[in-house]
Amino acid sequence: MNSDMSADVVILGGGLVGMTLAIALAREGIASVVVDSSDPATQTAQGFDGRASAISTASWNLYSHLGMADDLAARGCPIDAIAVTDGLKPGRIDFRPEADEGSLGRMFANRDLRLVMYAVAAREPLITFLPNAHVATRERGAHGVTVTLADGRVLAGRLLVAAEGRQSPTRDEAGFTPARWNYHHRAIIAGLTHEKPHNNVAWEIFYPAGPFALLPLLDDEAGRHRSALVWTVAEKDAAGPLALPEAAFVGEVTRRMGGIFGAIALATPRSSYPLNFHHTAKVADQRLVLVGDAAHGMHPIAGQGLNLGLRDVAALAEVLAEGMRLGLDPGDAQVLRRYERWRALDGFMVSGATDVLTRLFGIPGRLPSAVRRLGMAGVQRSPTLKRFFMDEARGMSGKLPALLQA
Questions:
Q1: What domains sit in the chain, N to C, each tagged with a CATH number?
Q2: Rounded-to-10 torsion of CA 328, 160, 111, 350
Q3: Residue 23: what pLDDT?
């Protein structure tokens, strides 16, 4: 079949994971075509998406190696500590690294991540970006892949990457069968301004209905202190908070915050999305690999979703680059098996841990709460356990790809 465009790799999905993969591949001399159905102007519009992401130390190393850190540095708020509490009751855990260890990560508005990512990708001649494009058909064969777009254009490559997110049609069409379930929860997202400074502390307050997270952002241009709110509620109860007048909604949020930031106000419109879980240990097939949420979607309880996807990016870029240096095709089965083996355990461990945390803190009642707080007090008194959890939060445990190392 004749093609209108060809590259080593065809990436379906140009979000935070898919486009970062394209940049990582370009730095290794690997050409890609990135197909995305969204409009970059909409994705980066002020107020389009109030979500924010915690970027771990390992992910920050990746951005540094890819030439994104300089442009991002001024936009992110360091996370100097994480406070974990069961309903603001006594017995909380404070994760705070030593002074010479740096922060636990950085918080970025997703809009800022996209702005920098698009700008860096635009400077890479080995990246062809096709926004506002819709896939009609995908074909994988012994010698390559072809993707036909709705407008008739045909793309050819040697490897297809599914980076379309949780609802990946490429994954589903290929017959992958991830384990999946619905938490029957919904995350309510909003930006807040508040009277007291957050002092670069991220708060994870667990209530029986779900976690209530306050994530530190940089002060705005007017000097107002800001945080991102991720409030998890039962799906059946979500319509109520979303429909409340603004003053009443602020009152509900204030009550759950316990006054830790003083008076608050909404800085962005409210939005929400349903929470579910899916994970597939199989992330490779004939000339096809899955990355990011296409492979593993989890509860945002520990803020690891994007970071896990960026670990996929670093591992895939490394195995493809090493394989091609040895003269192997990027779609070679042994190259893809190496990626799958490398990512299987990490993906399972992180996904499983977030699921256990969600269920553990969702058990209502005084006795479960007392048991949880006893366990948290034990962690608070154990430097070894705190070190383990901080290393996990930083993404610095296990065998790391070179792009995730300092």
A1: 5-180+276-404 (3.50.50.60)
A2: -80
A3: 98
